[in-house]
Amino acid sequence: MIRFDNVTKAYKNGTVAVRNISLDIQKGEFVFLVGPSGSGKTTCIRMLLREELPDRGRIWVAGREIIHMPKWRVPYLRRNVGCVFQDFRLLPNKTVFQNVAFALEVIGRPKNVVETQVPQVLELVGLAKKRDNLPSELSGGEQQRVAIARAFVNRPLILLADEPTGNLDPATSQGIMRLLDRINRTGTTVVIATHDAALVDWMRRRVVELDQGTVVRDQARGVYGIDASTGSVPRTEVAARRTS
Amino acid sequence: MPLSADYIARETATNLWRNRLMTIAAVLTVAVSLALVGAALLLKQGAANAEVDWQRGTQVTVWMRPTSSVSEASAVKSELTQLPYVHACGYRTQLDDYHEAGKLLPSSEFSALTAKTTPASYRCTPNQPQEAQAVIDRFSGQPGVLKVTAPLPEIHTMEETITVLQWVFVAVALVLLLSAGVLILNTIRMAIFARRREVSVMKLVGATNWFIRLPFMSEGLIQGLIGSLVAASVVFGLHELLNGLANPNDPGSVLAQMRLSGWELFGTDAVVIVIGVLIGSVGSAIAIRRFLDV
Question: Is any Cβ of chain B less than 8 angstroms from the Cβ of A69?
Answer without folding.
Answer: no
